[in-house]
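Budget justification, computational time. The allocation requested in the original proposal was used primarily to generate structure tokens for proteins on the priority list. As evidence of use, we reproduce two of the resulting records. The first is shown immediately below.
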Amino acid sequence: MSRKISFTVQYNVPVEDLHRALTNDEVWQARFAEAATATLDLSHPDGPGTIRIHMTEKAPEDKIPSLVTKVLKSDLVLERTDNWGPLEAETAKGDFKGASKGITTEMEGTYTLRPTAAGSEIEVVGTVAVKVAIVGGAIEPLVENLLHKVLDSERKHIESWYATQKA
């Protein structure tokens, strides 16, 4: 069983600048600089103006919901790979895949970056599946909420980075 997800992340950054930030190695390296249990692998397999971001991180035990800790088999390690394509006519497409170790979860979907009157937005559409008998359906909304939080944290980081670039 899987759960469909769909939400939008609003940015106060023009679309060209947001795309430049999303495909900039320095932005991602700064984002993960303080994450002691994280790994980051950046590449540009489709050339300039594109990026592949592969991230892993061990979840801090005090941040894991009790429902999840009850079914964990080992440390909860989260993994996500984002791919962003070039900006074409003020729009860029991307995709993501995620998984975890310690509890079997999978998520995948697409990103659409586009301009708005206030800056830009990223539309996120995809699915999440937690493969745990009985409680998997109860954990899926928690995984979706975690993705919301992570993307909101990335938004704050990029908006801060953008503000320093303008200064």
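The second record produced under the same allocation is shown here.
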Amino acid sequence: MTGWNLFLVVDAEPVEVSDGVVLLEGRRLLALPDNGYQLLLAWVAGPRRVVRTPAPMHPDQDVVDTFVNSYLVEAGAPPRPRGFAWYLDLPAGVAPADVWGAVGERGERGSPVDLRRVREAMQRGLAALYDRA
């Protein structure tokens, strides 16, 4: 993949149906808040499974950008563009907890976090999750 510009921009307002799950133009999606871990998931899932909508900037957007983008870069992904909310397609019958369980990195507690391993765990988990759907 070459960049975040491949992710579809949907100019519509999502409707929240349950905790973190929204409907957007007939799609059932998981909202991915603007943090490094969840946007790494967006990057790994790719533009076939993730859409974005325009979003207002946070008052501390420069600080948010610094933390989010440094996380992404350390994990081997490019910095994400600002000013968007991100959403992951949820296959039928898949709950948000299923997503987080599938992509979780099972490292030892207290050990240093290797973000490339986190990314690899996400890739494996998403592949298994979408293959079963």
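A brief technical remark on that second record: The helical segments are 36-45, 61-74, 96-103, 115-132.
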